[in-house]
């Protein structure tokens, strides 16, 4: 990545600009803009997040926002209320208050003498979600959006539920946010006599969101609010949607490119949950230059040619040896002028011969441990590994060796006819690339709670023994399977710990299965290119403790319990400008007995530290989830320390009934 230090316009930064909301709440912002913006007003770009601008997202902020400012924009990074250095309280993700605050910041920015009245909004993950949701509110000054690693469907394609199955990330993310939002504002900004009061008020009102999310197990009004798919036409701003094949949010780009009526373009690379100018696996792209083309067209009315860009640009990844981390993925960029594309044809492959006996699917509860993380982001061992351990616990339909290579581009589907011996059952289907020596690489997967076969809003219990039809949609992908390799379709009724298990062991009788494979003519070369990455000067820090990620699977031969242990030590660094040191460590354990779905448990423990010149604080947050056949049991705890003194503690505990889950 090339570091840019000289820009067309000189940049100034306002490190703690207070933006006062209509209700009096002060939001803290970092603002970069051209030094002469007062004489030559510029458009504004907003990023609105709960992740702390001072010590949370500062690494990527420093690469990105000064770059935009140097090219003639006021780039604004706001801490959401209740987080970082902002006042107020946060009670849930994507609340009406959060979105109204974003609209109010947009209106504030547009009215400043240094702004020309046009505003863009961007973000990745949470920021990618809320910029789409804010656009649906249609604030008058918002003209363009760049949304990365986001979703159009809060129920079916987020970290909560997938195919009507409960994702463990529902609990895991609630644990993460409990930790993230438990930290205080920086005394250097909030004031020596004020930061502690703001912190204690924040802690006393802190939400543990897992019970709330678990109380909405079906697609109800709670999830519909903020789901862009409920009304794509509400978005009038031009949308650039970007994602990665190694991220959990790989479907959004296709959904937006196919459904937004406003100007829209999509780009999908080989990346994990990161901005693509520094993402991996490589190749990274010149995202900031691509973003400037978008901003210049829609915020400055400069003809940059973006309207003539292909509707959908995707990186077709080559087959590689399975590994928990890939520093790069060989492949090529393809481009489709229209999306959905007439160049992609579905090929139907019958997996079970007509008249054959039903295939029995009865997987051990521990099937799925090779699946990797839902959205990897540590540049560590989080990707799906060799699928052979999970394949051995699944029913596999292996196809003949390919006589020639194929490019799979799109969302594979499997149409099934199946009977269950229980009223609730899950099914997981994986599409794998099997190498000549047997190594199995995951291409895509899909899961379905079979009680949701007709509706996520109104699920229906299965009648034991009755055969029903269902459609399992796998995640979008772009993958080349070489000649001589085989396709494997692996079917299981457990996928731990990606999804929570059924309340009882299940047997499925699979009587029919048809794979619909989206195939594109083999790309011969890159059909589109991107500039090499550029960025502003990186964040100046010193390392106090190096980062490290660990994953371990253990089987207790006495009890039979299988445990996945995860440690993500994000390290500790000190800011060389203002001296604040911050560090964090996340620990997770996921345990289950192969024969007992009710043995499933998850535990998390986060440590957060902040310090400067003898001042230090620390938060310890822990949480646990279990279930019986009728209910989920969740608990959590916050401990907050000033120095070594415990200054706050709080426990959460709740029992939530299961509803066909």
TrEMBL record:
Sorted UniProt keywords: Hydrolase
Domain of life: Bacteria
SUPFAM superfamilies: alpha/beta-Hydrolases, Galactose-binding domain-like
Membrane-crossing segments per the record: none
UniProt KW Glycosyltransferase keyword: no
GO MF: hydrolase activity
Domain Xaa-Pro dipeptidyl-peptidase C-terminal: 292-540
UniProt name for this protein: CocE/NonD family hydrolase
Organism from which the protein derives: Mesorhizobium robiniae
């Amino acid at each position: 990545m090339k570091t840019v230090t000289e820009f067309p316009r000189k940049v100034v930064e306002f490190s703690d600009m207070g933006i006062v909301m209509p209700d009096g709440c002060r939001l803290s912002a970092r603002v970069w803009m051209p030094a002469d913006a007062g004489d030559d007003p510029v458009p504004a770009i907003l990023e609105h997040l709960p992740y702390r601008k001072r010590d949370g997202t500062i690494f990527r902020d420093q690469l990105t926002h000064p770059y935009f400012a140097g090219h003639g924009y006021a780039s604004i990074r706001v801490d959401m209320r209740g987080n970082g250095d902002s006042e107020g309280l946060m009670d849930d993700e994507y609340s009406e208050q959060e979105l109204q605050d974003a609209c109010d910041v947009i209106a504030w920015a547009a009215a400043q003498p240094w702004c020309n009245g046009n505003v863009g909004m961007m973000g990745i993950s949470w920021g990618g979600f809320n910029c789409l949701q804010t656009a649906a509110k249609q604030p008058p000054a918002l003209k363009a959006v760049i949304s990365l690693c986001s979703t159009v469907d809060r129920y079916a394609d987020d970290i909560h539920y997938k195919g009507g199955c409960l994702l463990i990330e529902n609990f895991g993310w609630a644990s993460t946010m409990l930790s993230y939002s438990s930290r205080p504002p920086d005394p250097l900004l909030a004031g020596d006599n004020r930061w502690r009061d703001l912190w204690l008020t924040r802690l006393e009102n802190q939400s543990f969101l897992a019970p709330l999310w678990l109380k909405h197990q079906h697609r109800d009004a709670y999830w519909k609010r903020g789901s862009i798919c409920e009304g794509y036409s509400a978005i009038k701003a031009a949308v650039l949607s970007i994602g990665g094949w190694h991220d959990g949010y790989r479907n959004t780009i296709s959904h937006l490119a196919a459904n937004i009526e406003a100007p829209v373009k999509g780009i999908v690379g080989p990346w994990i949950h990161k901005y693509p100018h520094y993402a991996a696996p490589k190749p990274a792209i010149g995202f900031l230059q691509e973003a400037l083309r978008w901003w210049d067209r829609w915020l400055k009315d400069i003809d940059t040619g973006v309207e003539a860009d292909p509707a959908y640009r995707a990186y077709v990844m080559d087959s590689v040896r399975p590994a928990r981390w890939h520093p790069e993925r060989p492949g090529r960029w393809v481009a489709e002028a229209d999306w959905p594309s007439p160049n992609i044809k579905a090929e139907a492959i019958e997996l079970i011969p007509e008249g054959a006996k039903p295939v029995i699917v009865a997987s051990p509860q521990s099937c799925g441990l090779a699946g990797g993380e839902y959205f990897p982001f540590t540049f560590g061992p989080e990707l799906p590994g060799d699928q052979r351990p999970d394949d051995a616990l699944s029913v596999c339909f292996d196809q003949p060796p390919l006589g020639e290579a194929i490019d799979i581009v799109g969302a594979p589907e499997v149409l099934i006819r199946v009977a269950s011996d229980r009223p609730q059952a899950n099914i997981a289907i994986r599409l794998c690339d099997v190498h000549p020596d047997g190594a199995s690489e995951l291409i895509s997967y899909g899961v379905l709670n079979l009680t949701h076969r007709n509706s996520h809003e109104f699920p229906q219990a299965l009648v034991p023994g009755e055969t029903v039809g269902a459609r399992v949609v796998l995640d979008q992908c772009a993958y080349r399977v070489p000649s001589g390799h085989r396709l494997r379709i692996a079917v299981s009724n457990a996928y731990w710990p990606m999804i929570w298990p059924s309340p009882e062991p299940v047997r499925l009788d699979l009587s029919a299965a048809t794979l619909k494979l989206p195939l594109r003519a083999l790309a011969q070369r890159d059909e589109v290119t991107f500039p090499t990455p550029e960025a502003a000067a990186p964040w100046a820090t010193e390392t106090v403790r190096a980062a490290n990620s660990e994953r371990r699977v253990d089987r207790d031969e006495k009890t039979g319990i299988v445990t996945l242990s995860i440690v993500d030590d994000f390290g500790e660094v000190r800011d060389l400008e203002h001296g604040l040191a911050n560090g964090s460590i996340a620990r997770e354990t996921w345990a289950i007995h192969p024969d007992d779905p009710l043995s499933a448990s998850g535990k998390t423990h986060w440590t957060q530290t902040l310090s400067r010149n003898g001042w230090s604080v620390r938060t310890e947050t822990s949480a646990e989830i279990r279930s019986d056949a009728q209910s989920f049991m969740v608990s959590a705890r916050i401990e907050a320390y000033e120095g070594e003194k415990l200054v706050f503690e709080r426990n959460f505990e709740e029992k939530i009934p299961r509803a066909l889950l």
